[in-house]
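Try it yourself: sequence plus phosphoric acid mono(formamide)ester, in.
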Amino acid sequence: MITSLRGQSLLSLNEVSRDAILEVLNTAESFVEVNRRTIKKVPALKGRVVASLFFEESTRTRLSFETAAKRLSADVLSLAVASSSVKKGESLRDTIATIDALGIDAVVLRHRSSGAALQVSRYVPHVRVINAGDGQHQHPTQGLLDAFTIRQVLSQRRGTTGLESGGELFEGLRILIVGDIRHSRVARSDIAAYSTLGAEVRVCAPGTLLPDDVEQWPVTVATDFDESLEWADVVGLLRLQAERGSGAFVPSLDEFTFTHGLTVERFARMRPETLIMHPGPMNRGVEVDSRVVDAAAAIVEQQVANGVPIRMAVLYLSVAGSGESS
Ligand code: CP
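Structure, out:
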């Protein structure tokens, strides 16, 4: 169990304690303030080197990690995988060894293979590894930024701050996660974060899109989507993970939208204060109607914006907390 992220790699939220999650959220609060300045830069990681290795597509995570590292004054080595020697058949192990030879302190890794981040942490045990999404396994910084966003929004509504709220506002909070749970690393990391913080988590999906071992997860499984929308304080929507073959698990996109899409009609029946979240990228008209997206846009954009301070906090704790550069 990781009780503090200082000097640690971040591979999964399953092994991260409540205190360590709150340490990241509280550290990110100070970086929100840095991001509001005209000069959005602090010297916290000056002289440190962060390698950004995205073997799978990304818009939000890659840009916010690289922005975060630069705002901490780290040097960023960004590998363009499509034009690298990976295309000539170089293995992950040899790619990491090559980058390590250049002198790095941390690797931010996205890979289509579940377990790739753990594998890299074994190849270069002296380097901090931050998992930016590995297959359907974990996307820990997404879980952290989603928890941070919930705390930020609900604290503001109560006229207090996230720091003052701590973790208490998660106690008994009702969070529903809907969609392709089976293939979603975001679902796995969100559930780990929310349940560790004390929230009550439900998942709702067509039976084929639930994981086989769902009864071992810290969630309840709902069959009635419409009732669950009334129950929830927070609704997290997930897209169908087509790149992981989810298309074969539903009869058609229309049928998925009919049974589990957040349509205008369903949205109209929801309590107005319910938070609607989406990690992106969205497939408008499938898991969520375009008009609902526009109504929820502020929170979804807040999730994206919070990616920078959360990733600054993770890099700062993980790299600066590890003492001298390796
Ligand atoms: N939420 C998320 O991981 O988005 P990207 O794939 O664009 O990074």
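One thing you can check immediately is this: The chain has a mean pLDDT of 94.
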